[in-house]
Amino acid sequence: MRNFKEQLNQELDAFVPPMSEKIKRQPIVTQTPDGGKRKESRLHRGKFGLLKYLVACSVAAAIMIGVILGVQFMPAVAPQAFGVVTLEINPAVTFLIDKENKVMKISALNTDADILLADETFYDSLTKIPVERAAKLFTEKAEKAGYLTDGKTVNLSVVAEEEKVSNDLLSACKSELNAYLENTSVNAALNALIVDVGALSEKLDVSANGFSDLVKRANELPTYSFEREIKDLNKDDLSEKYRENVSHGIYKELMEKLLTEAYERATLVNDIVKANDDIKGHGKKPGQEGGFGGDLLDDGFWEIKDKHPDDKEWDADFKGKMDEMQRLLDEYGNRFGEKPESHLELEIEKIAYSRIFPVLDVVQVWLNDFSNLVFDVVVDEILLMLPDDFAGVTEELKSVQNAGMPATKEEYIAQTKELYRLYAQYISESAGARG
Amino acid sequence: MDKRELDKCMIKVARGDETAFETLYAQTRRGIYAFIYSYLKNGEDTEDIMQEVYIRVRQNAYRYKAGTDARAWMFQIAKNLALNALKQRNRFAPLEWAEKPVHTRLHGELLDMMERTLDEEEYRIIILHVLWGYKHREIAEQLSLPTGTVTSKYKRAVDKIKKEWEDDNA
Fold it and tell me: What angle (nearest 5°) sits at the alpha carbon of residue A413, between those of residues A410 and A416?
């Protein structure tokens, strides 16, 4: 079954009428500057309707005149490339190199590369720099995102028209990448080779006769591998593809990760609240040996740290409670990047995550027993229960969700990129915070 | 179209922009139709009232206050017209949810399922949430219900649809 909202819209289309003549005949009533009413005629198709028309005509005329006079508006040929380099970790990318061995263009060869390159700032940082540096930066990004793990091999393939260029490229890349891999905590190897045009054509999944042809094909590759998949799709196939690849692929995966993190965080918040209540309770027992009789200790742990910091005042039992609280707070900070610094902050965290538990079982069942019918509902529920700006992605995810199914290839590309970017952002930054 | 975009569109309509009105119609027609249908339960009557809603929008867009909620504004018009139509009709022969003549009912796999399994409020809540992107609190304001009631009815509605779907496909 299709997406719930899509199906509902499609079924309603059979009944909902187009705009009737009766509606069109009703003039739009506007307000005059003095507050009176004025009926607009249908010829006024917008405040700047006539102006837009005149501008469009002028531009069209200018283009025609330019063509007649032989003025070129576009460059005749793309800048010449001198080398092609592929880097396969998974993810896999290809770099097109200029005569100074600098990167002219990067293309993703698979989905995982699409995910990393969806961050446009990162993409831009890889261009116009020496290819060996770009390769190192890409490998570093892949490692942070969890793609480069122990035992993996980084495969680099180089092709250039001149042998000397190939040798220089290979040498520079090997040097840079080996230095990087030696200094990283991951135990991974490098396999770098000069290959022939046929081998590289196969990696790019193109058919090329000779180096010039290979460069042309590499230049024609879209930035993202998914753009190749949607090239010949019509609108209905586009929606189906988006559903398969994106909304039921990467989006679902991201939802599951967010849900898992939110649950872990909520559970730990609960443990911290209980530990702090224990401490507060200890303080409320007057006359207790080693306790703080008479003190209300509303803030618990933080109040003790502030008013009774000398642990010689604490008995063994109380010290145990304080140590446990410190351990839980440190765990929270290590896993989620920041810990509550006061009772008030703890209460805020508690309220933020209180929505999760009542609906968690239901949502987990839905995610596990996944069907198209409930996809939108599941996503809505998860986004509703998470605190605003959870993991830095929820507000943007809501925008993608509200955008609905893309209707054009441009929308498909934009929405898919945005989801990939958010996914990469989450797994890199959240993983970093968790250590 | 989200709340902000709809607001911008309505402001343009208020200035007499026909293109903006065409966009408004295209983006809101299904949601308005489904909403009215939840009251009238009859396709022909729903069409008439829906037409009237958009005529009223054209007549009164200049009264719309920028930055408020264009969706809620349109829903209020739709609801008032639908309830008036019901009052007119109920003087003669009120139709129960399950008793309406088949030829005036909406047909479709999902629409049939929703009519079979949901009560009126659940149906309306699903329409507002799925087609209009309303949050539960907004639905509660729109339907004059407590937020908790909307949340629990919504969950019940989704569970019903899910179960019905699974049973149909078993």
Answer: 145
